[in-house]
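Report of the visiting student (M.T.), summer placement. My assignment was to run the structure pipeline on a short list of targets and document each run. The first record concerns Transposase.
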Amino acid sequence: MSVAHLQCCREELELAGIVLVSGKMYHPTITESIDTSKRLTREERIEIVLISGERSNRVIAADFNARHPTRPPISHATVSKLLAKFRETGSVLDLPKCGRMKTVTNEETSVAVLASFSKSPQRSTRRMSLESGISRTSLRRILATHKWHPYKLQLLQHLNDDDPDRRTEFAEWAKQKLEQDPQFTQKILFSDEANFYVNGEVNKQNHRYWSDTNPHWIDPSKTVGTKKVMVWCGIWGTKIVGPFFINGNLKATGYLKLLHDDVFPSLCTEAGTFQFFQQDGAPPHYGCQVRAFLDEQFPEKWIGRRGPVERPPRSPDLTP
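After the run finished, the C-alpha cells were exported:
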C-alpha cells in the first residue's frame, strides 16, 4: 500500500470519527476535559494522535502549532494528557460532566416558569417552588436572567375635584419657602399615625407582582375590623419625637390629650426649635378643640386641614 493511499484512508477515517493508532481503529464515545487555553476540537485531537508516532510530546506540540499558527499554541503537557486519555479510553473526546444540570440553563424550564408567572403574577417564589419542584434560588435566577422584577403593591386614595388645585397652591408655597431658606424642611415637625395590624395586613413587604414591565399595581381598598395597634410619631430634622401608643380608635378628644400630655411636653425637652408643626387631614386632627390648641401653640405656624397653611388632602408624600 502506497503512502498516498494510506494518507487517503486516514482522512476518510477522520471524517467518519474513527482514529487509527498502531494498526488499530478507535471510535470516540466518551468525553474528558483537556487543559488548554482554547479547547481542541475533535478533529484537532485526532490529528495529534495521527502525527504522534514515536516522537516526543514536545516535538508533537511544535509540529501541531506549526500546522495551526492562527490558534493559541498547545503545550507538551496537553499532548501528554491527550495521548494518555486515548490509550486509556480509546477516545479523544471529553468525559460527560457529573452533577445535576442547572435548571436555569434549561430553556424549556425557563419558558415554563415565565409562563406560570405570566398567568399568576402574584404567586410567590416559595409557592412556585413547592408546586414545580424547582428551588427558589433557580426560580430567582430565571427571573433575574430575563429581567423580571417583584413590584410592590401601591396603596392610593381617590382624589376629589378640588384636590389638584389645593395641592398646587401648597407646592407653590413650599417652593417659595425653600427659595428663602434651603433648610426649611429641617424646621418642620412632620407627624403622623400608623396602624400596625396583628395579622400582617397592609404590609406591602408581603406583596409582590412578578413581571418584566412595571404593572403599576395598586389596591385602593383598606381592611377594617382586624386587630391593630396605632402609633403616633414625629420627625423633625434628624430628631424623632415619640413613638406614642394609642389605645383604641383615635378621636379628636384623644388626639388633643395626646398632644397636650405627651407630644408637647416631650418637645420642651428637645434642644432647638422648629417653625412649623405638620399633621395630615385625618378627622381627629380636624376637631375644633384641636385646631384651637394648635393656633394657641403655633399661631400661623402649623400645616393641616383648614389650618393657617392648608395641607393638600390625601398627600402621603408630605410625610418623610
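The beta strands are 19-21, 24-26, 149-152, 188-197, 208-211, 228-236, 239-246, 276-278, 302-304, 309-310. Confidence is low (pLDDT under 50) at residues 15-37. I thank the supervising group for their guidance throughout the placement.
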